Amino acid sequence: MDAVQYERNPKFQNSQFLGLMKQLRDREMVVEGDTMVPVEEASSTSGGWATEFQKSATDVKGKGRALEPLRMTVNESGIYSIGAQNRPTEFDLSGRSEVFGPAEEEIDAYFRTDNDDYINYWRGPESQGARFQSSTTPPAVLAEWDKLQRDWDIFEATTTGIKPISNYQFQANNPYVLGEASRHHNMHSTLSAASLELQSVLELEAAVQRDPYNATAWFSLGVKQQENEREQKALHALRRALELDSTHLPAWLALAISHTNDGNRRGSYEAIRSWVQHNVRYREAVEAYRASHGDMEDFNMAQTGNSDSLVECLIAMARSDISGEIDADIQIALAILMNTNEAYDKARDCFTTALAVRPDDWQLYNRVGATLANNGQSQDALQYYYHALELNPAYIRARFNLGISCINLRRYQEASQHILDALVLQDADVVQDPAEDGTENKRGVVSSALWESLKTCCMQMQRIDLATICDRQDLDAFRLNYQIL
């Protein structure tokens, strides 16, 4: 009974066989002769088998040899069998009828028939898989099991209770997960930020799957998805990084960037506020600012409706640094808030100030360009996009932004080329998944925004044929008709 206590198959749980075993275990039934009878109806004579059974079962002082209780064990084939401990089983569950002999008792025949059904259940087509399924299992039961499995996949137990885990969807059949070495494998033995920075999405997803509790790996994956114009995946990865390590300051700034790109002003504000609260370096400056501004009720955007108080706090943090050095992260945090408030001139100034500290940061060049473009200065934005691409030619977001600025400047042919290049780069992180019919299905994630923008270019160029291909999102057909080798 202990071995099968977690078995939930309805046929097994409701079987008379299991009921009899429970009654035997609980001493509610005993064997007299060739029948099983309730304890109260058993023979009460001193020599009765039932009396001896009860007596031996409770003999804890070693007086007399207790009868060995029936046990249910599992043989090498994974089949349950019933027998006494330290002796051969009395009932063979393999289905070989000759073990019962020619004079098979009625109760033995019952056990054999009922157990054969159970054996067939365990020997079903999915008996080697993680989940056993009987062909007679009701659909409602299977649906309930499927729901439980989905809940298991999306929830986890944490120190603060049960909560959903990151619902980041990994690409299936990732060659790096399946064993193919990363091109950076020999250069880096640990998962550091530097080693993860230039890896592909597939490599980073493999790194996360191998070490799912590494906040740095999740952060690097989120930033890479930002660069690859996959904002929702970036949000999932960055949130997971912060679930694992709420003190990871770069992840808070990256999350604020993703919320800004996603049009979530409240999310951007909260991410910057969390970055301030977890920033140990400026703790004294933040406490001093709060002390001079009362209980800081207006520090919450829900109270004020704007981020003025948080902007002032960031400025106080910058002024508190007496070293004379510029903290680029403070400038980035200020620029994000300025962008959400549509104060684009101030946001540009903050980003360019950060660039003075980090002149090789391609993300900052792209953000300056995007700020200029948002302010209606698409022509001025081009040079920043080009500079970002010089530093990182595989920067998909910069290529897409460059295409959008060209559309705004009515340079549709040039815009279509830039957007197509971005789609080709996105397609490079696609896993070929064999379909049931033998064909190859691409399971990578390509941005619908890129296809819609490319379709706009095609319509402006009077290329209806290419616009139709954009609707199908068929990259190979588009490149062929676009005369791209």
Could you please describe the fold and organization of this structure?
The protein is mainly alpha-helical. The protein folds into two domains: 10-122, no CATH class; 228-433 and 445-481, Serine Threonine Protein Phosphatase 5, Tetratricopeptide repeat, CATH 1.25.40.10. 54% of the residues lie in helices and 7% in strands. The protein is built from 23 helices and eight strands. It has helices at 10-13, 16-25, 49-57, 106-122, 139-154, 193-197, 201-210, 215-227, 231-244, 249-261, 265-277, 283-292, 301-304, 308-320, 328-340, 344-357, 362-374, 378-391, 396-408, 412-427, 448-460, 464-472, 475-481, and strands spanning 29-32, 35-38, 70-74, 80-84, 155-158, 161-164, 432-434, 440-442. The strands form four sheets. The protein has a two-stranded antiparallel sheet with strand order 1-2. The chain has a two-stranded antiparallel sheet with strand order 3-4. Strand 1 and strand 2 form a beta hairpin. The model is unreliable at 55-102, 126-135, 182-196, 301-305 and 435-441 (pLDDT under 50).
Quick structural overview:
Pfam families: TPR_19 (PF14559). The chain is mostly helical.
Q: What is the strand arrangement across the widest sheet?
A: 1-2
Oligomeric composition of the shown chains: single chain
Overall CATH architecture of the largest domain: Alpha Horseshoe
Q: How many structurally independent domains?
A: 2
Measured by DSSP, the beta-strand proportion falls in: 5-15%
Note the total helix count. Answer: 23
Largest sheet: 2 strands, antiparallel
